[in-house]
Amino acid sequence: MKKEANLGEVVIMTSEKKCMGCGVLLQDENILQEGYTTSLENDICQRCFRMKNYGEYQMIAKSNEEYLSILKSVGETKDLVLYITDLLNVDKDMEEIRKAIPNKMILVLNKKDALPKSVKEEKLINYFKDLNLNFEEIIVVSVNKNYNIDYLLKRIKYYQTSKTVYAVGHTNAGKSSLINKLIKNYSDKTQEITMSPLPSTTLNTITIEINDYLTLIDTPGLVDSGSILNIVDPKMVKKISPVKEIKPRTYQIRRNQSIIIEDFLRIDYVEGEKNSFTLYVANGLKVKRLLNSTNKEDLKDLNKTTYQVKYGEDLVVSGLGFIKMVDKCEIDVYIDKRVDTFLRRNMI
User: Which CATH number, 3.10.100.10, 3.40.50.300, 3.40.190.10, 3.40.50.1970, labels domain 64-224?
Assistant: First the structure.
């Protein structure tokens, strides 16, 4: 059965069947609109098909208002919510999201495998407990290593208020990867959600029946408008997104020295005693230190933000990772004006 959908000035007929990859309604009449498929007999749209089989990505522009309306509807239920976040790129607006969804909530700290093995799980959990955001439990997982997935399922069973459990979080936090792992481990279903390191892969809610007692609903990832992933090309997105354990790079920095990452980030050490900067970014990224940056103008045409760093703070670059600093200092950060940077207490 088809129904009419009005998209701007274009009227197309959509089916009531959703793409199993991204959740959008399928349609076979307009190749330029989301949800297009060559046949309504297919289970996924053309965009997901090409992403899955050829690694091609087609950007879909959606506003966070659309995503927030979905999250608000989740908050109107009494169902358990899994809030999934990437340990390398923890959401700045975590508190706002928690307030928007008053449900019972498990915080799932994903991509433990991206952090060095020396980072203690207990320290991570205590860091987020100190935020006092009233999570039922905080669980560290690695989808890639299948770490703590069994334990997560047990805690879902313990806290769930109905068969339905929602998964929420920002784009690239690993929601779809986690759900696919749950399908693979605990279900006889063949459904697979489209995964990509690029933003806005899931476009609408997707319902997945894992077993007789658990149905997961994957929600679209909130788009972090300040993420560097939004402004670099797809090849650089893959380079920025770590696929192996990060090997932290530590530099002893003095006044009038600089750190430059690729061609998009410069950090000048303006004032302070000799300091230690440890970079938690993907291993493949090129990093260089300028020992005397006074007359070096590399990347100084980018937007500058000056930070007064306190003892024991991280500089977070949205979508890229973070730099751990030990002592107080003054730094100038040069980066595209569309990318968010901020300070927080040392996480590690």
Answer: 3.40.50.300
